[in-house]
Amino acid sequence: MQNLFKQHQRLWICLLLALLTALIYWQVQNHAFLDYDDGTYVTENPYIQTGFAMKSLAWALSATYASNWHPLTWISHLLDVQLFGLKPAGHHLVNLLFHIANTLLLFLVLSRMTRALWQSAFVAALFALHPLHVESVAWVAERKDVLSAFFWMLTLGLMLFTRNVRVCVATGRFCFFLSWG
Hints:
mainly alpha, 11 helices, globular
């Protein structure tokens, strides 16, 4: 058993980080939309309420609604409404899944950069469980934060794991652009 763990340490650490993060934040699926910005972003936004449609997509790509231009965030909300309707559980679960993905990407990037497996796991666990991230996971309108972190971590990962310089630069620029949300 110990030999199996040693051979697949990264995989076991990733599973543990994902499970730990899911256990801590799982309760968000029982939460309602918040009165603060979730109405502006999702529940009272007529473009988002229609779900994924050409008119809504055109709006998402061009709107500066709620004082922000973040088309990827709007598109993700459109997809959420298309998949889950206006039931908050699905919207919260997507934020949680992005946070888990961010945690795993951070661990993989740090462990590759530093070659320090357990220190990287510790930092990723701190990232996953730190109270500052509760808002990003539990507040649907904060999707922009988990999306931005996801594409930033993906950019770093691609730069580390891609050996072809042209592919790395092109893909890195694209992901960096997407990290703007």
